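U., I forgot to send this yesterday:
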Amino acid sequence: MKAPQPAGRSAPLDLLKQPNFRRVWLVGAVAGTMRWLDMLAIGVYVLEVTGSALIVAMTLFVRMLPMFLFGVVAGAYAETVDRKKLLTVMLFGLCGVYIGLYVLVRTGNLELWHLGLGVFFSGIYWALEMTIRRTMVAKIAGMERISAAMGLDTCTNNATRMLGPFLGGFLYETFGLEGTLLLGAGLHVIAGFLLISVAYPSDPPRATRPSIFANVIEGFQFVRSSRPVMATLTITIILNLFGFSFMSMVPVIARDELGLTPFPTGMLMSAEGAGALLGALIIAFFAPHRRFHQIYFFGASLYIGCVVLFSLSTSFAPSFLLLLVGGFGLSGFAAMQSALIIANTPIAKRNRVMGVLATCIGFGPIGILGVGMLADQLGAATAVLIMAVTGASLMVLAIVHWPEMRKLRDD
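Result:
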């Protein structure tokens, strides 16, 4: 397959001038802000109510479980329906979920299982968005501007990783859980109307309706045949199992190790997003296609290294700095993850292979459950250290098996 050519440093700005790209991009911004805001607020609430690190971890486990259960099926299913309509329905459905949770809080009837259902439904949307919306972004942008498009979309996600926890900590400390839920309802309505206004062509009708099961099998068969895709997915699994799971422990570490209240806890969580936003901006404007593999691998390595050091930190300032630098590495991993899959997959198979990617990301809940169980026995900081060191060791094995991921130049 012919590699996309560099589109120039003006490509990100040119893309933002296109109304359809801008709206799909903003949908990710609005929904992503609520995802990270919600993650912080619900984590703090559950910790206050239960005092259990394991149950805090379980809330993130439930949120990410749909990615593991339905990721690959979502990619295959997306090829059989109107993708824009499906995402729009999910966004308005999420609005209803947040309104329902808000009413339960206001009436004093909220139970933990209500929150569990809410975050599970949010996770279903996350699995669909990962597969569908990013494919829409790539299609609207065109392959010649794929690095700019993925860089911008990663900027959005990382900006929301910074803004969401910051707002979540402020809103929770000021208005309680109900304030975050009410904002969530409003943000998902905005995202829904933005998506409705996007002019996105449906795929031409087919003589026969494609089999979801056949699409799933074909997606896995292609992954096995593609060395770059297999390497990308393996590193994705490693980071989601052993790196990203530490986020579920940040509220616990912030309270027990650093002595922080919800607002500075939100600031601490936002540091990762700030570093990732800076990195994503650099990638969007300057990343050459021939460096995709290296940006991906070295970004992942920097991230998990900073998680190891974060688990050893005992004060706010170095913890904040480590998450800031780790976020910078995360931007390379996150932007190149989808770009490598899309660039190395034929157009006809992209949704189903992106579904496989969503399933690999969905391994995160297993890591979250593991770190939660370790934290209950050994403490949150020790649990994060064990998981991150394991992940770093597996990264070394991965690069031994796929040495092309660290070459200075792609072949």
